[in-house]
Design a protein that fits this description.
Layout lengths: L3 E5 L4 E6 L2 E9 L28 E4 L5 H7 L11 E5 L15 E4 L4 E4 L2
Antiparallel strand pairs: 1-2, 2-3, 4-5, 6-7
Length: 118
């Protein structure tokens, strides 16, 4: 178990972090297309293997985060919203240990908009 983060430089290179620190092989590439098109799928990729763990938060920024920024906030909820924080799902809806299958929206703390999660 751990906390994972990915950054994307807008050109084609990702950096991966675990528990706030860069992974041993921190960069990888292969992304094609525009991040602004298509459907975002978290934990259930098309044609891939579904993630079987728990996802606590998802944050999307309009800028690439530095190593220091990731380390400073990887294990805590963000209290003040930055204009560069585009989407921030905390996944705090529902009840711990309960069947929350009926919850199909996630509140975006950055914009206060509910997003369809089906």
């Amino acid at each position: 178990m751990g906390t994972f983060a990915l950054t994307y430089d807008g050109v084609g290179t990702f950096r991966a972090y675990k528990n706030g620190l860069p992974t041993p092989n921190p960069t990888f590439s292969g992304f094609s297309g525009s991040a602004a098109t298509g459907t975002l799928q978290i934990g259930e990729p098309k044609g891939g293997y579904p993630y079987t763990g728990a996802i606590d938060e998802v944050r999307m920024w309009s800028e690439q985060r530095t190593d220091a920024q990731i380390l400073a906030s990887y294990n805590t909820e963000i209290a003040s919203m930055s204009p560069c924080l585009l989407v921030y799902w905390k996944f705090n809806q529902g009840y711990i240990g309960a069947n929350n299958a009926g919850i199909t929206t996630a509140i975006d703390a950055a914009t206060a908009v509910n997003h369809d999660g089906t």
